[in-house]
Design goal:
CATH topology of the largest domain: Transferase(Phosphotransferase), domain 1
Distance between the termini: 126 Å
Mean pLDDT: 77
CATH class of the largest domain: Mainly Alpha
Order of helices and strands: EEHEEEEHEEEHHEEEEHHHHHH
Number of domains: 2
CATH architecture of the largest domain: Orthogonal Bundle
Strand order of the largest sheet: 3-4-5-6-8-7
Shape: elongated
Largest sheet: 6 strands, antiparallel
Length: 396
């Protein structure tokens, strides 16, 4: 039986959060299964025995050592999931390392999956923001194998960081949220809604700066215009813990749906737990649609959450999209203001003046007597000088 590490409540093996206390599970995967830019992967036996999608046929064998289309020399497999595998490879003409995402052969028989794979490549290839994973190439081999080449990232996923460290500092949270919003700002401007923002799809690199964000996996991204829909009316795609109310209701989506997911993500980063306690999928859906989460300041045990940042997160988690930020650019402006206010002193105080020195009564009395004697001596001296002057004038 699997139980929550924090409160001991029994959990479903596939649970990402505890339904009793809301804490994120910290056991299970010792690495990350992610079909975008990833590095080394380690999967526990129980995870390997229960893939996310049960294939109807055997997945492709390890392609390490194979050269695809005479262009990509595959070096090693980094990880695999239900839809495909990711390999470390070398692009021979450019002599650079890449992450090569390959769709499982049996999946290539599904026209909708193939179209979605192509859609991801097309959507990602249009994006050039520094915080979006770079897609270099998309092609198909003679035997029909579909692959996508993208930059090879070095670091860890945000989910891995939260699992290892728990709650993050408000300063780090603002930096990470701003990086994700930067990626989404460009995507939304091009009519692309990610629809699956979650910790596993956010990567943290250490260069060029600490916690440098890369947003991954536009695999279920919705292109608002110019392309046919890949989902039937009322069908939802995404990860339940991060889905917006309108996404859960199967309504039309815009960029503000991704902003809701950012609110859930920010809440989780600050508190180490999900905004809503739910013991079932139905309870979680109901919470997304109706429940207001507790303020993050009441749950953060390790850091003081600036009120400005708390207001931003609660606005992102608004049930009605019109009550959220208008777009990612507006969110970034708010985050910048929150970061500035967080770095300022809590109160502006007047300059501290030194208090007058304390003088004990005997010393004060002595000083007063000395002053009187000095005044008397001064007057006596003046009178004496005047008398001598008059006498000299009278007898000359």
């Amino acid at each position: 039986m699997i139980v929550c590490e924090a409160c001991g409540v029994a959990l479903d093996p596939e649970a990402r959060f505890c339904g009793g206390c809301g804490q994120r599970r910290r056991s299970g995967l010792t690495g990350e299964i992610n079909l975008s830019g990833i590095t080394e992967i380690t999967v526990t036996a129980d995870q390997a025995a229960a893939p996310l999608v049960q294939p109807t046929e055997k997945s492709e064998s390890d392609l390490s050592g194979v050269t695809l289309n005479g262009r990509y020399q595959i070096e090693s497999r980094l990880g695999k999931g239900g839809f495909g595998s990711v390999y470390r490879a070398r692009q021979l003409q450019m002599n650079r390392e890449v992450a090569l995402k390959i769709l499982h052969p049996h999946m290539a028989a599904d026209p909708q999956l193939v179209e979605r794979f192509k859609r991801e490549a097309q959507a990602s290839s249009k994006l050039r923001a520094p915080h979006t994973v770079m897609v270099y190439d998309f092609d198909q081999t003679e035997d029909g194998t579909l692959y996508m080449a993208m930059e090879l990232l070095r670091g860890r996923s945000l989910g891995h960081a939260i699992g290892e460290e728990g709650a993050l500092s408000p300063e780090r949270v603002v930096v990470i949220l701003d990086g994700i919003a930067d990626s989404l700002e460009e995507a939304h401007a091009q009519g692309i809604v990610h629809r699956d923002i979650k910790p596993e799809n956010v990567y943290l690199e250490s260069k060029p700066t600490a916690d440098f964000v890369k947003v991954l996996d536009f695999g279920i991204a919705k292109i608002i215009s110019g392309a046919p829909a890949l989902t039937a009316a009322g069908q939802t795609l995404g990860t339940l813990e991060y889905m917006s109310p309108e996404q859960l209701m199967g309504e039309s989506l815009d960029g503000r749906s991704d902003l809701y997911a950012l609110g859930v993500l920010g809440y989780e980063m600050l508190t180490g737990r999900h905004p809503f306690e739910a013991r079932s999928a139905g309870e979680l859906i109901s919470a997304h649609l109706r429940k207001v989460p507790p303020p993050v300041s009441t749950l953060s045990k390790t850091h003081v959450v600036p009120p400005a940042l708390e207001r931003i997160l609660m606005r992102l988690l608004a049930k009605k999209r019109d009550d959220r930020h208008a777009d990612a650019a507006a969110l970034r402006n708010d985050l910048l203001g929150a970061l500035k206010r967080a770095s300022e002193p809590a109160l502006k105080r007047d300059p501290v003046r030194s208090p007058p020195a304390k003088i004990d009564p005997p010393t004060e009395q002595l000083q007063r007597g000395n002053r009187r004697m000095l005044i008397a001596a001064t007057i006596l001296g003046a009178v004496t000088a005047l008398a001598f002057g008059l006498a000299f004038w009278f007898f000359r």
